[in-house]
Design a protein that fits this description.
alpha/beta; five-stranded mixed β-sheet; two-stranded antiparallel sheet; 2 helices; 23% strand
């Protein structure tokens, strides 16, 4: 490991690309095609796969459910059709696993609601990242607590895992 130290531990960086537990650790006897469709369309995935001659190649087992990995072919080109889970962590987990087993090109699709009328089937391309990003605080070694009886101490207490606050 080659950890780049920082005064604030959470800002330390490990430049070693290997993980403690690699995404392909289970050594499945399967190699996926290089293309995959990662879709946020739960009710449509299985229906579409079965209507278009898809077969379940394997399953991704998560803590909450099993995601079937469908193998299909279009114009002689094999591709996977995979249900994308909602949430960054499980979506990244499945994507890492797909890539570890041969996927190189991924397109994601889904559906959404709109605030102004749009015809059904309109293709929308987001121009900015998630609106939730505006809720993140800027990088700092301390965190001001609003409405809390006490004030944050200035700076970071060395030897402590987190910034400290006076109560």
């Amino acid at each position: 490991m080659s950890i780049q130290k920082h005064e604030i531990p959470i800002l330390e960086f490990d430049s070693d690309p290997s993980a403690v537990l690699e995404p392909g650790h289970e050594a499945l006897d399967v190699h996926f095609p290089e293309r995959a469709v990662f879709a946020f369309l739960q009710d449509t995935i299985e229906k579409y796969a079965l209507q278009h001659g898809g077969k379940v190649l394997t399953q991704f087992l998560s803590a909450t459910m099993q995601y079937p990995i469908f193998l299909l072919e279009e114009n002689g080109i094999p591709f996977l059709l995979v249900q994308a889970p909602v949430g960054a962590a499980p979506a990244a987990q499945i994507l890492d696993w797909l890539i570890a087993h041969g996927v190189k090109k991924v397109i994601s699709s889904g559906s959404c609601g709109v605030l102004v009328h749009k015809e059904e089937g309109v293709f929308l391309v987001p121009k900015k990242s998630s609106a939730g990003r505006r809720h993140f605080l800027p990088l700092s070694s301390s965190l001001p607590l609003r409405g809390h009886r006490g004030s944050p101490k200035k700076g970071y207490r060395k030897g402590s895992a987190l910034p400290s606050f006076a109560l």
